[in-house]
Amino acid sequence: MEKIVTLLLTTLCIIVFLSVSGCTDKSSIQNNDKTNDDNATKQLIEDKDAQIKKLEEKNEELKNTLQSIETDFNYAKEEADYYNQLIDDLINEYSDAQLKDLAKELWDYELEVNGSPVPKDGIIEVKKNTIKVSVVQRQPPYVVLPKDIFTQGKISGNYNEHLIKFNPSPTKTYGTDGTIVTGTHHQFVDVEKGAIISFSITGELRKRLGLDTSEVTIKKR
Q1: CA 112, CA 209: separation in Å to the nearest integer?
Q2: How far apart are CA 191 and CA 197, in angstroms?
């Protein structure tokens, strides 16, 4: 009987110990989970704070950049207004003829064969089988004269119509167009050795180009 009582007491002690141990382990796990959750929340808050700080710094940089651009723009506008007034005061004393001569200086014309300027005597030799004759009109990026005066500086009519009497006729003709530079290009393909291409330019364009002749001759070597 005493053995049975001892066995029962021992079993009861084991059960109580296991129960307490289980509760302790469960409590420890719950505490660990809570600590992990707290750490994750803390890290998330820190990450968000860092992102907000970075965005605030970026916003401040953009505000400073915008302010700098506005300052530069206002300065440039004031400078432009000053020079416009200065130009107006200067050309006030000019005659119509002087104004037109001034406007002409602002328009540039070029005549090229395969990218090379046509010489003053109008004679040029080329090696390539494809020959491109280009007439180009160039104007300044900024107009400093009143528009009605500025446009008087252009060559009369369409600049590309100042090339005439092509012999033979070009294989194809096409244009290129930009903000300040436009061009018309006459292309001849499969030109044989010894062939001669000729054309004329108007006296007005000749003067603009500074050529000694109105006749241009291209010789294929």
Answers
A1: 11
A2: 9
Query: Would you state the structure tokens that stand for residue 74, as one six-digit string?
Result: 């206002």
DSSP strand pairing (123-126 vs 215-220): parallel
The count of residues in the chain is 221
The reported pLDDT for the residue numbered 177 is: 92
pLDDT at 99 over 60: yes
Structure tokens at 99: 């104004």
Is residue 173 scored above 70 in pLDDT? yes
Q: Which residue has the tokens 């530079």?
A: 181
What would the two tokens of residue 25 be?
């382990």
Please say whether the beta carbons of 135 and 183 come within 8 A: yes
- Helix, strand, coil distribution of the chain in percent, nearest 5: 55, 25, 25
**Helices within 92-132 (DSSP H only):** 96-104
Do residues 135 and 148 make contact, with C-beta atoms less than 8 angstroms apart? no
